[in-house]
Amino acid sequence: MEILVCMSVVPDTTTKITFSDNNKTFNKTGVQYIINPYCELALSKAIELSEKHNANVTVIHVGGNQNDPIIRKALAMGAHQAIRVDAEPKDGQFVAREIAEYAKTKSFDLILSGRESIDFNSGMVGNLVAAYLDLEHANVVTELDVDDNNLICIRDIDGGREKLAIKMPASASAQKDLIEPKIPNMRGIMQARTKPLHVIAPSVAENVGNIQNYELPKGKQEVKLFDTDEVANLIDVLKNDKKLF
């Protein structure tokens, strides 16, 4: 079985975010980068499936060579090889197209991704990759396994849980609770140094969008308290106070 894991690299959650060039550029100075936590779940599950079903795991990332050490961490966790598309990931559709173009050249049985990246939170890459490859896709799964040639998934839905059986090849995106993230051991770290990390040129896909500017979220606002006998006043504030939204 061949598994492809889509991996995003994001700022650490403790990073202080700032912008430059009149809020048009994200300031990367001093920023610590990590594997996107949801992608880390997808990779950990792929490695578990590899150990259980003798699968081969390939990690793919769209980005520059500054991310190679982070890709090596994915190899240390247990991936067998990695692909880096040498391009700046400016939007989710561009990333998805690049991943899909690479996947078309191979025969993957399963493509896994995180539900979203924690920086842009668009949640589009996994879905778009599946669409470009005409694969059935299970979104935000909390349980996943392979039975014969079927992908068995469970995901939370409103009011309950849904179990899906999808004929492979297929794709799925990881939600929290899918698995405990795998921690690289010393043996894995040593082996990662010699595992292949192939760099490929981007396809002809172009960015479909451009970032106009960034802005930080608003700070905490003053809390308004209402007594139990002021329900009418509360409703009026919720309806008419535009500063709340």
In short:
The protein has 6 helices and 13 strands.
Q: Approximately how much beta-strand content do the residues carry?
A: 25-35%
What is the terminal separation in angstroms? 49 Å
Question: What multimeric state do the chains show?
Answer: single chain
Q: What is the β-strand count?
A: 13
How much helical structure, as a percent, in the residues? 25-40%
CATH domain fold name: Rossmann fold
Which sequence of strands runs across the widest sheet? Answer: 11-10-9-12-8-1-6-7-13
- Taking pLDDT < 50 over at least 5 consecutive residues as the criterion, the unreliable ranges are none
**H and E string:** EEEEEHEHEHEHEEEEHEH
* Overall radius of gyration: 21 Å
**Domains (count):** 1
Helix-strand makeup class: alpha/beta
CATH architecture designation: 3-Layer(aba) Sandwich
Number of helices: 6
Largest sheet: 9 strands, mixed
CATH top level is Alpha Beta
Tell the overall outline: globular
Average pLDDT reading: 91
